[in-house]
Design goal:
The protein has about 625 residues and is α+β, with helices and mostly antiparallel strands. It is built from 15 helices and 31 strands. The protein folds into five domains: about 10-190, 3-Layer(aba) Sandwich (Rossmann fold), CATH 3.40.50; about 205-290, Beta Barrel (Elongation Factor Tu (Ef-tu), domain 3); about 305-375, Elongation Factor G (Translational Gtpase), domain 3 (Alpha-Beta Plaits, 2-Layer Sandwich); about 405-500, 2-Layer Sandwich (Alpha-Beta Plaits), CATH 3.30.70; about 505-615, Alpha-Beta Plaits, CATH 3.30.70.2570. Helix 13 (about 525-540) runs antiparallel to helix 15 (about 610-615). The protein is globular and about 110 Å long.
Length: about 625
């Protein structure tokens, strides 16, 4: 079988290097990517801006990477040899670890960036373990060595002790002023293995991300493992079976740039022309329709959402717009899930699943900004597993779906494996916090034994592992952790499984009517405190009416807490001056009867702040 002509039009795999950058939040990933782009001349100096690959407005505002971004660079190595470097920049926050895992599957190597002032953090550990699972070549980089408080030697030793690197493998760099960038490029060329040479095999391209374009349809971001493809060819998405013509193939440099072909080892995009957002899902394999591959590439392990909340349009007429926006956003964010639901208080909307609170916050803001929607969000909750008295078990992600107590044998809640990295002198504060959230201690390990003599914060760093219920870390755990450790602690988590718990449904009644959007499943020991705090906050947030409004928290038929919003009193006697007292009494009795009738038929409008109040209930 002859080698296709496209193989000779593209770069040979032996001169291609595919790598990503992994790090904890704010360790300088995006800045290092900027320096690599400058050093290789991938971007015109006039077009260069800080955090170039963080193209989303939300990313620049928050200073975090939300979406993985691919870019092709050209590098002249030793002996004048030209190399093609494909970089995939990844997020650092634990909520976006799914983006990291997808990027790792498309690469052969990874730059592990560690801050010289902070050392190893929880997400550093998690990302290294992910990279090792994918059998990637890891190049450790100690960043920010230009800072006055940097301790590159200590952090380098910490990295060597924790991950087993030798001293000569660690590169000291400063992404801000460009120190060590040339060493990093040389290490990528010499240490990252090239992709396998399978240019003569049938096309297999892994979809690691995608977006929707109104003109080009679904644009799939791909890593080509086998074969080659060009514009105009007939392609097939293997799992969905969808076929179309490849309108365009191209690369990111870093703006999309059309090329003649993509071949084995390269990273780029294919404009499929498909109009349905579900026809080219992330993790699927693209092949040629006329000469399909025998079996698809190994895709991604689908992630289970950990946090659920209802999203409703503020204007009921925008329901269809919200559904279309969610479908398009799910194409760009494979971890998002949603299904229709209705609420007596909020009307029709969608029950959405997220990887965490930050993920939920980002999705809501993207929907409001990118699709010009005005949304109401219910309080976040987790998925519980209910075992009924007849032995049947199923998952619920909405407290309103919980069956009556007499039909329930047990309720199981999700538990996390929680890893916290902090200085040794905060061990007591961390343990006190986790124990107050029903956490179970597992183990503790010192990452660095050296202690500081000139600082109030110990340099000895500790990894503490706990098992803890997901619902207990959902709301304000991270804020509390940072506050108690002066900002030095970091955390990472993964789902451990389900365990039975003493759980009950807490209902909120406003004017005698249950508000399903404010219901929550809580531990029985925390029910009274949670209900008391919630009704007292709702009393402040719900505006006064012309009639008295009771706000109650109940578990089953038992009311455990109550607050009353006093009625606004209209002075009906203002126009009554002089005359008999019976005239005044008649007006007051008429007003009282009107208030009683209003209380029977009146509706209380609950503002959006009330639905977010559960997030702000202080512990």
């Amino acid at each position: 079988m002859g080698v296709p002509l496209l193989y000779w039009l593209t770069m040979k795999p032996e001169f291609i290097r595919n790598f990503c950058i992994i790090a904890h939040v704010d360790h300088g990933k995006s800045t290092l990517a900027d320096r690599l782009l400058q050093a290789t001349g991938a971007v015109d100096p006039r077009d260069m801006v800080d955090q170039l690959l963080d193209s989303m407005e939300l990313e620049r505002e928050r200073g975090i990477t939300i979406k993985a971004q691919a870019v092709r660079m050209s590098y002249t190595g030793p002996g004048g040899r030209e190399y093609q470097l494909n970089l995939i920049d990844t997020p650092g926050h634990v909520d976006f670890s799914y983006e990291v895992s997808r990027s790792l599957a498309a690469c052969e190597g990874a730059l592990l960036v560690v801050d010289a002032t902070q050392g190893i953090q929880a997400q550093t550990l998690a990302n290294v373990y992910l990279a090792l699972e994918h059998d990637l070549e890891i190049i450790p980089v100690i960043n920010k060595i230009d800072l006055d408080v940097a301790e590159p030697e200590r952090v380098s030793m910490e990295v060597q002790q924790t991950f087993g690197f030798s001293e000569d493998e660690v590169i000291l760099a400063s992404a801000k002023d460009g120190k060590g960038v040339s060493d990093i490029l040389e290490a990528i060329v010499s240490r990252v293995p090239p992709p396998g040479d399978r240019g003569d095999a049938p096309l297999r391209a892994l979809i690691f991300d995608s977006k929707y374009d109104s003109y080009k349809g679904v644009v799939a971001y791909v890593r080509v493992f086998d074969g080659s493809t060009a514009s105009g060819g007939r392609i097939r998405v293997m799992a969905s079976g969808s076929e179309s013509e490849a309108l365009e193939v191209g690369v990111f440099s870093p703006a999309p740039e059309q090329v003649d072909a993509l071949s084995a080892g390269e990273v780029g995009y294919i404009a499929t022309g498909l109009k349905s957002v579900g026809d080219a899902p992330v993790g699927d394999t693209i092949t040629l329709a006329r000469k399909p591959a025998g079996e698809p590439l190994k895709g991604y392990q689908p992630l289970k959402p950990m946090v659920f909340a209802g999203l409703y349009p503020a204007d009921g007429e925008e329901y269809l717009d919200l559904r279309e926006a969610l479908e398009k956003l799910r194409l760009n964010d494979a971890a998002l899930s949603f299904q229709p639901e209705s609420s007596l208080a909020l009307g029709t909307g969608f029950r959405c699943g997220f990887l965490g609170l930050l993920h939920m916050d980002v999705v809501q803001e993207r929907l409001e900004r990118e699709y010009d929607l005005s949304l109401l969000a219910t309080s976040p909750s987790v998925a519980y597993r209910v075992v009924r008295s007849d032995g049947e078990d199923y998952e619920i992600d909405n407290p309103s779906k919980l069956p009556p107590a007499q039909q329930i044998d047990q309720i199981q809640e999700p538990w996390l494996e929680l890893s916290i990295v902090c200085p040794a002198n905060f061990i007591g504060a961390v343990m006190e916090l986790v124990n107050s959230r029903r956490g179970e201690y597992r183990r503790m390990e010192y990452l660095q034994h050296e202690a500081a003599s000139d600082s109030s914060v110990s340099r000895a760093r500790v990894l503490i592992e706990y098992s803890v219920p997901l619902s207990e870390v959902l709301v304000d755990f991270y804020d509390q952790l940072k506050a108690r450790t002066q900002g030095y602690a970091s955390m990472d988590y993964s789902l451990e499984g389900y365990r039975p718990g003493n759980l009950v449904r807490l209902d909120i009644l406003v004017n005698g009517e249950p508000v399903d959007a404010l219901s929550a499943i809580v531990h029985r020991d925390n029910g009274y405190r949670h209900g008391r705090d919630l009704v007292s906050r709702l009393k402040e947030l719900i505006p006064r009416q012309l009639f008295e409004v009771p706000i109650q928290a109940s578990i089953g038929s038992r009311v455990i807490s109550r607050e009353t919003i006093k009625a606004l009193r209209k002075n009906v006697l203002a126009k009554c001056y002089g005359g008999d007292v019976t005239r005044k009494r008649k007006l007051l009795e008429k007003q009282a009867e009107g208030k009683r009738r209003m209380k029977r038929v009146g509706r209380v409008e609950i503002p959006q702040e009330a639905f977010l109040s559960i997030l702000k209930v202080s512990r």
